[in-house]
Structures are given as C-alpha cells and as structure tokens.
Design a protein that fits this description.
By secondary structure, this protein is α/β, with parallel strands linked by helices. The protein folds into four domains: 1-166, Ribonuclease Inhibitor (Leucine-rich repeat, LRR (right-handed beta-alpha superhelix), Alpha-Beta Horseshoe); 182-337, Leucine-rich repeat, LRR (right-handed beta-alpha superhelix) (Alpha-Beta Horseshoe); 348-505, Leucine-rich repeat, LRR (right-handed beta-alpha superhelix) (Alpha-Beta Horseshoe); 527-555 and 578-652, no CATH class. It is 20% helix and 12% strand. The chain contains eleven helices and 28 strands. The chain has a ten-stranded mixed β-sheet with strand order 1-2-3-4-5-7-9-11-15-17, with no helix packed on it. Helix 8 (574-590) crosses helix 9 and helix 9 packs across helix 10. The longest helix has 50 residues, at 507-556. The protein is globular, with a radius of gyration of 45 Å. The relative contact order is 0.04. Mean pLDDT is 78; it is low at 1-12, 227-231, 508-520, 559-571 and 594-658.
Length: 658
C-alpha cells in the first residue's frame, strides 16, 4: 500500500514521471544532469534533490530555488494533490502558471518570484495557503476578484514588479492576519480601498509605483482591538510614485509603530501635519552630523513642501525659481510646471507626438507662430488660452497634467484620438467647464478631485457624478459620458468591456447588432422576392386559364346563319366576333383593378363586369355604350367558371338594322 502511494498519483501516473515533466528539452536535461536523483531518473522521487515527501512517500515539497532552472510549470503538476510547498524562486523559469497548479488543495507556501513567468493570474484555491510570492515576473491582466481562498491564517502576499493592471479587489481586505502586502511596481489603478484598514495585523504596505488616485485612506490608521490591545502595527507605508491627491491624513499620527512613510511624487497638497512628523519617522534622512539637531525639520524628512523639489522628494529641499511653480509636496523632478502658456502648450505637443505626428496640417511645432494662432487654440482678448480643440487629429501619447495650470482654460476637446495613459488630476486647477476625452484609450478612473468640479454640468442640482466627465470602464454612451441635455447615460457593455474611459459604443454589441441587422435584411428580402414570384405565377396562371375558357366559348358558340340580318342590314362576321372577344380579354389584362383585394382572382360583380364589356365593345365599334347594348347583349365572364346564358344568335335575333 505504501509503495502504491509512493510511486503513483490519484491519476495512476508515477510521481517521477510527473516531476520529470519539469525538465523537458535540452536545457531541462542539462539542468537535471547535475542534480542528485534527477540524472539517474530512479523511480523513487522522494530521493531526488529538492523533493520532499511525507510518511506515505507522497511528494509534499518542491524546493528548487536559485539553481538557474529554466523549464516551465507543466499542468500535470496539478495532480500532485498532496503538494504543500512550491518554492522555485530566483530561476529562469518561463511560461505560465497553469490553473491546475493554482487549484492544488493543500498548498501552504508558494514562491515563484524572480523568474520570467508570463500570463494572467488564476485564483489560488487552497484555504491552507499562508504565503504567496509571485514578484518580479511578467504577469499581466487583472487581479481576480476571488484571488485567494485562504482563511484567516494567510500572512504574506507579494506580486511586485509585474504588469498587473486592475484595481485592488476588496476581497484582499478579508486576509485579516496578513502582515505584508506588496503590490508595488505594477500598473494598478483606481483608489486605495478604505477596507484595507481592516487588516489589523498589517505591518508592511507597499503600493508604490502604480497609478492610484484619490486620497490616502485615513482608515489605514484605524484602531483595532486585539486581545485588549490596539493593533496598529503598521511600520512601513510606501505610497510614492502614484497620482494620490488631497492632503496627508492627520490620522497617520496615531500609528505608534510607524518607522517609514514614503509619499513623494504624488499630487498631494497642503503640508505634512506636524503631529506626524517626528525623529523616529524616516530617520535615515538625517544620518550623520547634518543638519544640527535643532535645525532639523522632521516634516521635510517625509515630504518637501509646496514650491520646492528634491532628488528623493524629501530633505534636503530646493526652492523653485520664478519661472516655474510646484503646487505639490514631495516632488522629485525639476520644477517643471511652467507658468508660461507657450511652455505648457509645447509640453502638450511633445507628449502627444512621442508615438507619431498628428494627422493633417498643424503649426504647433513652429515656435515662430503666435500662441493664439496655433491650430485648435482659442484665446480671449488678453491673449489667455481659453480653449483647446484637437478632436480627431490622430493624437498619440498622454494628456499632460501641465494643462491644468493654464489659468483661463475653459474647454478641452481631445475626443476621437489615440490617447492612452490616465486622466491627470492636475486638471483640477484650471477653470474647465467642458472636457471631452471620449473615443480614446484612456484608462483608470476619473480622479476624485475632478469629480467634485462643475465640468460638463457636473454637480447640477447637487448631483456630483464622475460619469459627467467620462463613462467609467466597462460602460458607454453615444457621447462617451453622462449627458443630461442629450439624455445620454452610461450603460454597461457586455462582458464588462471595454477597459477604457469615455467609450462611445460597445464593440461586441455593435458587431452583434450588425450581424443581426444583416440577417433580418436578408430574410426580409428573401420573403419579398418569394412573395412577388408567387403572386406573378398566380396571376399568369389565372390569365392563361381565362384565355383558355374564352377560346373554348368561342369555339363552342354556334352561329345560326338563318337568323342573320337580311340584305341591307349589318352582318357581323366571324372577324367581328373575334374582335368582340379580343378587346374584352385585352381589357381584363390591362385592368388589374377588376380583381378584389381579398382575392385577386375573384371576379367583380356581374353588373360592373357587363358595363366594362359594353364599354370595350363600344370603343371597338365607334358607338356609344347604349347603342351597343341595343345591338349586342353579351355576358362575358372573366372567371374560370364563366358560362354563357344565351347564344350569339339569341343576342342578335331581335335586332333591327340601324
């Protein structure tokens, strides 16, 4: 029994074969050639280097760390259902993480950091999971909403230095025992969830180098009673290099164990509250003998004040010159926010031509052109820029935040271009009344500060809604935003697409509608053609049937020459009889109104029919209708059941010559 469990998995495949699937190809075999057990390829995998088993000889650990291993993770590893530890960090692994591995039910520790793993994330299903490190790879896409099924014992999560591009799922706030959360150096966006304040045992929070907007949540400093003690254990908070705005919350002063607070290179305003500043926070900035203890500004160790810059965003701080302005604290770059309008527009031109020139003619690259004569630019009487209209010009790149420092700018229209990136919160500084970014590839969310302005009628009747600026990701409207005048609202797209702001039409919906419309058109046309053919065939059939009956009548009607008029009287000949029939038939063919609407092949009333026949004969003879009635009375039927009530002789026997 032990042997069976030793060599075979639940799928009756030897554990050794499953592990050998790790080392396929020349590179894998080369790696295995120098490893104990892997080279000999003996059946007892429990004796191989880096493999650990339990008392039943089931593989429970794969420990191959920092060995230059260059294989992939085969899906068949997901059959090692007793596997608890998968530690293969600091190698040269490539490929993806198969869903079968993420679904292993007994995983406790997973470390695949510092490899070349690509692909998207799959939910990890083990409720026993304690640590997960996927940092320094090339993972992309979203963090699944139900990414971790771990219970309250989960402690460590790192996915730093990847290309993840989503918001932080609220489900991460359920990891109440986590002490380290590292999502830095990705493309994450949105706001920092307030619910992270529920992580009472959190010590290290790394969210730096992303695209987060909004405020620093004061809830990070919320007190959590744990066994009668305050559980504010946060020691390190890294939020630098984002788009966070607002002021630094004074509640952070309640974090008694805080040692490092790094917030530079955001859009934070105001000043660092003095209650937060202390010699214990970011103390490494003052290492050495400078400046003297009494001259130290501990707030500068957290972030340099407004209108200054520093290489690291904190002490020592350098003031900006008169040509530049910096409204934010903790800035690391040069004072590159210009007060000069021409410099700001030049920044606009540079940032939207990085990936190619604009479509059509433009004079923005000509420094000799007067500012207000630039294409798409409108100025007031004092030569202040009030409007920028560059709709449908093939702009590629990003919207520069410097536009927010055009003090009189009221309108920006950059719709229907190929702009990417995120909407800068700096636009909050300009008195913008109309903003159109629809029809681009701008991502993320609308900066909360912008949502509190009156852009595009936002805030009318006290209703502030970010949708007035642009429809959020996964929604659309014909104008790309919520428009009260045109009664446009932001509606959800199928499959929660697209992941851009200001979408005007759902691609999937448009394709489906087009296909459906084409099908309807084809079916309608087919029905119409079929109906037309059927009607024509029936009419033709009825016509020939009538002609056949009329000819039979003509052949069957006897001509009694004894009753013909005498000399001096008009004698109708056989040709006259044929002339009598032919106009009637011709009249029937040329007068489709002789058929009723309910049945096109029903004859009209007898009296109306006879009147038509008399009219036709009168036209033939050149006589009036009454004259013909007196000379010739014929009942010619146009239906298939036509019957003669009298012979031609009986019609003419009592006639006298005119």
């Amino acid at each position: 029994h032990t042997t069976s469990r030793s060599y075979f998995t639940s799928m009756n495949q030897p554990q050794s074969n499953i592990l050998l699937s790790l080392v396929q190809g020349d590179a894998g075999r080369g790696w295995a050639s120098g490893r104990q057990g892997w080279k000999q390829m003996n059946d007892n995998a429990c004796e191989w280097e880096g493999i650990e088993c339990n008392q039943y000889n089931e593989v429970i650990s794969i420990l191959i760390t920092q060995t230059a291993f260059s294989g992939t993770l085969p899906a068949v590893l997901g059959t090692l259902t007793s596997l608890r530890e998968l530690r293969m960090g600091k190698n040269k692994m490539h490929g993806t993480i198969p869903p079968s591995i993420a679904a292993l039910p007994n995983l406790v520790n997973v470390n695949l950091a510092e490899n070349r793993i690509t692909g998207t994330l799959h939910p990890f299903r083990s409720i026993k999971l304690r640590t997960l490190d996927l940092g320094s790879n090339d993972l992309h896409g979203s963090i699944p909403a139900s990414f971790l099924a771990a219970d309250s014992s989960f402690q460590y999560l790192s996915m730093t230095k990847n290309r993840l591009s989503s918001t932080i799922p609220e489900s991460l706030s359920n990891l109440i025992s986590i002490d380290t959360l590292n999502l830095s150096d990705n493309n994450l966006h949105g706001t920092i969830p307030r619910s992270l304040g529920k992580l009472a045992l959190l010590k290290h929070l790394h969210l730096n180098n992303n695209f987060f907007v909004g405020q620093i949540p004061p809830t990070l400093a919320t007190s959590h009673p744990i066994n009668g003690k305050v559980g504010d254990l946060l020691e390190k908070i890294y939020l630098q290099d984002n788009q966070l705005s607002g002021k630094v919350p004074i509640q952070l002063a309640d974090l008694s164990n805080l040692k490092e607070l790094v917030i530079h290179e955001n859009k934070l305003t105001g000043q660092v509250p003095n209650d937060i500043c202390s010699e214990t926070i970011n103390s490494y900035f003052f290492q050495g003998n400078f400046p003297p203890l009494l001259e130290r500004n501990y707030c500068d160790a957290i972030a340099c004040p407004v209108d200054t810059v520093a290489s690291d965003g904190s002490y020592p701080c350098i003031h900006c010159d008169n040509r530049h302005y910096n409204p934010y604290i903790g800035q690391t770059r040069e004072c590159n926010i210009y007060t000069n309008q021409r410099e700001i527009l030049r920044k606009m031109y540079v940032s939207t031509t990085i990936h190619g020139k604009w479509d059509g003619q433009n004079n923005w690259g000509d420094d000799e052109v007067f500012l207000c004569d630039l294409s798409g630019v409108t100025c007031d009487s004092n030569f202040y820029v009030t409007e920028i209209n560059l709709s449908n010009r093939g702009l590629k790149g990003t919207i520069p935040g410097e536009l927010g420092f055009l003090q009189y700018l009221e309108k920006i229209d950059v719709s229907d271009n190929q702009l990417t990136g995120f909407l800068p919160s700096d636009l909050q500084w300009a008195p913008i009344q109309n903003l159109d970014i629809s029809g681009n590839k701008i991502r993320g969310i609308i900066p909360p500060k912008l949502c509190l302005t009156g852009i595009n009628g936002n805030g009318y009747n006290g209703d502030y809604n970010c949708g007035h600026i642009a429809c959020p990701e996964g929604t659309y409207s014909p104008s790309g935003r919520k428009d009260l005048k045109q009664k446009h609202d932001c509606l959800p797209c199928p499959h929660n697409n697209p992941e851009v702001l200001g979408y005007k039409a759902c691609r999937e919906l448009g394709v489906a509608s087009g296909v459906f419309g084409a099908i309807v058109a084809i079916v309608t046309l087919s029905v119409a053609i079929t109906g037309f053919v059927v009607i024509r065939m029936k009419r033709k059939k009825n016509y020939f049937k009538h002609v056949h009956v009329a000819n039979e009548l003509e052949m069957q009607t006897p001509i009694n020459r004894e009753n013909w008029p005498q000399e001096g009287e008009i004698k109708p000949s056989a040709g006259a009889i044929q002339e009598f029939h032919s106009p009637a038939r011709q009249s029937m063919r040329n007068n489709p109104h002789l058929y009723s609407s309910t049945d096109r092949y029903q004859p009209i009333a007898r009296s109306e029919k006879n009147e038509n026949n008399r009219s036709s004969l009168a036209h033939l003879k050149g006589e009036s209708t009454d004259g013909v009635s007196n000379r010739l009375r014929t009942d010619l039927s146009v239906s298939a059941s036509v019957k003669t009530s009298k012979s031609y002789n009986s019609h003419c026997s009592n006639e006298s010559p005119s």
